[in-house]
Specification:
Elements (H helix, E strand, L loop, with lengths): L3 H4 L2 H14 L1 H8 L2 H16 L12 H20 L4 H17 L3 H10 L3 H14 L9 E6 L7 E7 L1 H8 L6 H4 L1 H10 L16 E5 L9 H11 L1
Antiparallel strand pairs: 1-2, 2-3
Helix pairs in contact: 2-4, 3-4, 3-6, 4-5, 5-6, 5-9, 6-11, 7-12
């Protein structure tokens, strides 16, 4: 099952990658001009080769998608590295690509997804996943603890003590890329309204990634106001 999970979904995964490249095409064209087409085609070939190597973590979301996204970034990194780009330069470009990816979605959709990250149902799932993660059923998985909010500075938190992205990049000989992927979390926070605060990351050599989420704008009673406002601005 482990080796076949991604391979059996290869066609779907490649289509997803193609759609992603369409959404993030702009930053690459701006930087590489006509060469961007050949470069992104080469990245697709790299990604296709990575699909069978993706760690199986039970097929569960969101961690499976985290690893798939890591493979997207890694495939692009390898192509650009061969062309002489530094990891810092690639990190900057991937940050711009992540911005383009998020902006391709309607504002209302982004805000709705952000609101759902504070729903009681979602938080129960996070707590359940945290407990399950400590069984370490899958070596390449993420391991984390759920942190109760203090009622003032944050609503809830997540402390990652093992990161699937860091493990995968280490296995692929590209650990140096990990720290340049972490800023994408801040982009998602800004786009989705999470209000994320974080002071340490495993990718930078710390003992944990300390995610803290203040609900901020998205109080339950305000949701329909946000909904109407978002619809009016799209």
């Amino acid at each position: 099952m482990d080796s076949e999970y991604y391979v059996s979904r290869k066609r779907k995964l490649l289509k997803e990658f193609d759609r992603t490249l369409e959404r993030v095409h702009g930053p690459f064209v701006s930087r590489y001009g006509e060469d961007s087409e050949a470069m992104l085609h080469e990245a697709r070939q790299e990604y296709e080769a990575l699909v069978p190597q993706l760690p199986y973590v039970g097929g569960k979301q969101p961690f499976t998608q985290f690893l798939i996204s890591t493979a997207w970034f890694l495939s692009i990194y390898r192509v650009l590295k061969r062309r002489g780009e530094t990891v810092e330069e690639v990190g900057q470009l991937l940050y711009q690509a992540s911005e383009a990816y998020l902006q391709a979605y309607p504002r209302f959709m982004r805000r709705f997804l952000g609101f759902m990250n504070f729903s009681p149902r979602y938080l129960r799932k996070v707590q359940q996943r945290a407990v399950e993660s400590h069984a370490r059923q899958y070596p390449g998985d993420y391991v984390f603890d759920y942190v109760e909010g203090d009622g003032e500075t944050f609503d809830y938190g997540v402390d990652y003590t093992e990161c699937g992205t860091v493990k995968f990049l280490t296995e692929q000989g590209a650990l140096e890329l990990a720290r340049y992927l972490c800023p994408a979390d801040i982009l998602y926070s800004q786009a989705l309204g999470w209000g994320l605060r974080r002071t340490t990351t495993l990718a930078e050599g710390a003992e944990r990634c300390d995610f803290r989420f203040p609900q901020g704008l998205f109080q339950a009673g305000e949701f329909f106001f946000v909904l109407a406002l978002s619809l009016g601005q799209e």
